[in-house]
């Protein structure tokens, strides 16, 4: 029985192509930019990055981070084989295609000092290159099946933050289901169903979907839906899908839309990676009461200790679901024994001390690919160095 949580992380768009496979009636397609479909925003971003590079700003940001011994903590979610991108239902902002991941690791090996999770507490080494730590959120099966072999090939140790209560479960989070519905309603020209799906939430709240929500970007829609429970969202998705097509096969064609099993997690640990907490059920921690927060923190730690570390050690790291954290949650994490807490706030971490609010840099296709889908070093440098160094130093 699939288990589902209340949240997912980065939220970007996805749309749907026409069905082309006899075995899979509908395909969700990650929109690939091309010369005909490049948005104005993308063009402006490329011009801006080229200008920054020409002015030496990208190199200056990189050197500044290295000089200050800053640590760039990367946040990845899903690594999908290029040929299966069309099957992936996750928000675009949490998907990096396999070829992009390989290019990322090649770049990191050549241009940065990659630190292992176990070395995080003593990172202030003399180097002219920025220090980088690689982390993954959620514990998707593709982390094990697709990403881990590349990490081994490049001799990179990473930290995998996992949702312990859903280990091994398929289709665990609601955003994939919502984007699936949205894509199908677009494909079948049933915008009325999409609108009534959103308006159905009005019955139980006074937060009526505004027009910009109904026709807005997927990121905006998913952000708006976070105010409702996962159970309610999924129930309404099912109702809408049934109205769309009662015979619809709901099984996703993405073979990686499941979370890693405990056996797979143990295998990663044996390879030298760190397995750490992303809570038990992926809730927004600031929306919970103190006791529920404490249980999420404690029980996820206990599950990892029992099923992965098996009493041999403890990482005591946590990534807050959706980066949702405040001073109360930090205090609870500290009380539960966590030493390092990771957010989704972009920035550079000085790496000088234990911290429960370490910033991270989200990496997805748009972070390093040009509009034609090829690796763009300047785009990645902009993502890795310029943007974090112009955000905040924590
Ligand atoms: Zn997450």
From TrEMBL:
PANTHER family noted in UniProt: POLY-BETA-1,6-N-ACETYL-D-GLUCOSAMINE N-DEACETYLASE, PTHR34216
For whether the record's keyword set contains Magnesium, the answer is: no
Keywords assigned by UniProt, alphabetized: Signal
Q: Which residues form a coiled coil?
A: none
Pinpoint the NodB homology domain residues. 130-394
Lineage: superkingdom: Bacteria
User: Which GO molecular-function terms appear in the entry?
Assistant: hydrolase activity, acting on carbon-nitrogen (but not peptide) bonds; phosphatidylinositol-4,5-bisphosphate phospholipase C activity
The record's annotation in Pfam families points to:
Polysacc_deac_1
CC terms in the record's Gene Ontology section? extracellular region
Protein name, as recorded: Polysaccharide deacetylase family protein
Q: Which InterPro entries match?
A: Glyco_hydro/deAcase_b/a-brl (IPR011330), NODB_dom (IPR002509), PLipase_C_Pinositol-sp_Y (IPR001711), Polysacch_Deacetylase (IPR051398)
Q: Tell me the GO BP annotations in alphabetical order.
A: carbohydrate metabolic process; intracellular signal transduction; lipid metabolic process
